[in-house]
Amino acid sequence: MSRKPYINEAQVQQIRRLAGEGLDAIEIAERSGLSITTVRRHAKANRIQIARRAVRTALEDAA
Predict the structure, then answer these.
(1) What count of Cα atoms within 13 Å lies in the side-chain half-sphere of residue 47?
(2) Does 59 have pLDDT greater than 70?
(3) With 90 as the cut, is the pLDDT of residue 31 above it?
(4) pLDDT at position 58, please?
(5) Nearest-angstrom CA–CA distance, 51 and 22
(6) 26 closest CA partner among 58, 47, 59, 56
(7) Could you give the CA distance from residue 49 to residue 1 in angstroms, rounded to a whole number?
(8) What integer pLDDT is reported at residue 41 of this predicted model?
(9) What residues form DSSP beta bridges with 51?
(10) What are the φ/ψ torsions at residue 45 (nearest 5 degrees)?
(11) Cα dist. 39→9, 36, 63 in Å?
């Protein structure tokens, strides 16, 4: 059984800030140095809305 990755409050705040900028989980993971799974898991646990790549791309194309 694998252990759940531990991230500190500063990393949760970084996920929250980057999500607020409209980044998706892949971009947040790249910028924060965390895995995509860790970003998604902690976003869900902390009720952070993360943009979905397809939706964001469609909105950018419409603009």
Answers:
(1) 0
(2) no
(3) yes
(4) 61
(5) 6
(6) 56
(7) 29
(8) 86
(9) 24
(10) -65, -30
(11) 13, 5, 28
Contact (CB, 8 A) for 7 and 34: yes
In the chain, the amino acid numbered 30 is: E
For residues 49 and 19, the answer to whether their CB atoms sit within 8 Å is yes
End-to-end CA distance of the chain: 46
> Who's near 29: CB < 8 A, 6+ residues apart?
35, 36, 38, 39
The CA distance from 15 to 11, in Å, is 6
For 24, phi then psi, to 5°, come to: -90, 175
Instruction: Decide: 27 and 51 in contact? Cβ < 8 Å.
Output: no
Instruction: Specify whether the CB–CB gap between 34 and 1 falls below 8 A.
Output: no
